[in-house]
Structure formats: structure tokens, C-alpha cells
Write the C-alpha cells for this entry.
Amino acid sequence: MIRRHKGPRRRRWHELRDKRRRGIVLLPSLLTTGNLFCGFFAMLLTVEGRYADAALAIFVAMIMDLLDGRVARLMKATSQFGVEFDSLADVVSFCVAPAFLLYSYALKDLSRPAWFGVFLFVICGALRLARFNVQTGTVDRRFFIGLSTPAAAGVVAATVLVLGDAPLARWTQIALAAAAGVLALLMVSTFRYWSFKEVDFLRRRPLQTLLVVVLAIMIVATKHDLFLFVLFTGYALSGPVRRLVVGRPLSVPTELPSKESP
């Protein structure tokens, strides 16, 4: 009877197999990387004074951010690595990039108060992402607690598109600085925002739903800047308005990290 030798070659095969199991899923990671690249590219465009293009790059980053979590869940490839990688990308794309865009576009002539407003936007966005990753408890998938960082970045990007390249009055600059502070506080607030995670796009809908979607697409195609501004600003205000109408819930549901990738 010949005894098989369990030497270095066999141990090496087991190590390679374990490393393969600990690897990442490529597609969700690429989408998260695309999100990060768009945020970085938005800052490069801002430096060159191409503010409208920088705002569009932030919107593309939002699409990447939306897709990476969906793809990871469809592929059953969610992991703690994906959550952390996605949060780091979001800090760049939805905290640093919009703050840098807003400061360069409208606030650089207001000196120190403008610095404080945009830095508050960055730090509150980072705190919002950190809180999302560590919270545990009862999960209500219908709501986010606090304004999400992509939504806050969307308000900033849409504002830049609406105002365009015309010189800004000083009162407009002050209003934008105050708006940055308000958005920052909304991100770390306890206001509840609809997450839209319960929307089933595969379920059959009435014919009127298709007509509404087509009408919305036509509005976006003709007045995309105004439509995006109304959409994101209305969503940002929906949290405080809902609190005024419905009142404070008896217990604020917390969030579990449900995103993303690899």
C-alpha cells in the first residue's frame, strides 16, 4: 500500500483555494471603482472651471452607486469589504467632490464662513456614512434615517446646473453657504426619508404608470436641470415636512448596512 505524501505541494493547493474563496467579485467592485473615479473626475473638472460637467460627473457617480449595490445583491456577493469600499467611494463622490464644487463655484469669495459651511458638509456626510455602517437594530427598509449623502450631493449638483455660468450675486452666495449647512445637518438628523427599496419594478403596473414614466422622461429631456433641482430639493425637504405632518415616531428604526459589493 502506497502512502500519499502530504507535502508542501498539497498545502500550497489548499492555500490557493482559500485565497480564491476570499477573493472579490469583480463586477460590483468595478462599479464602485467607477463611482470613485467619477467623484475624482468631478474635482478635476472643478479645478478647470467646468462646473456643469463636474455636476454631471457627480450624477454619473450616483448611477454607479445605485448599480453596485443592486448588482451585488443580485449576484449574492454582498460582504463587509463591499460595504467599506462603497463608503470610502461615497465620501469622495458625495462629500468631498460636491463640497469642493460648491466652494469653487460660489463660495470662494466669502472667506472663512464659506470654509466652515463646506467642511461641515464633508464631516456630516462622513458621519452619516459611518452611522449607517455601524447601526444595528430593527430594520425598516422603507426609510433612511437622515438624508443620504447621494441625495445631498444631488442638491448641490442640481443647483450648479440651474444657476449656470452667470455671475452670482452676493446674497445668492450667502444663501448657498447656508444651504450647505442645512444639508449637512439633515444628513446627521433623525428625519426619516423614503428609501424606495420596496419598489418592485418587475411587478405589473397599470397603463397610467407607463404614461407617467414617459412624461417624466420627456421633462428630463427638455428641462433636465430644473427637473433634477426640484426632484432632489423636494426629497431633501420631505424629511422635515414628514415630521411636521406625521410627528416623531415612537421608536426610530435604525439601519443595517445593506449595500453592496464584493
The domain at 25-196+208-246 is CATH 1.20.120.1760 (Four Helix Bundle (Hemerythrin (Met), subunit A)). The beta strands are 143-145, 192-194. DSSP finds nine helices and two strands in the chain. The chain has one domain: 25-196+208-246.
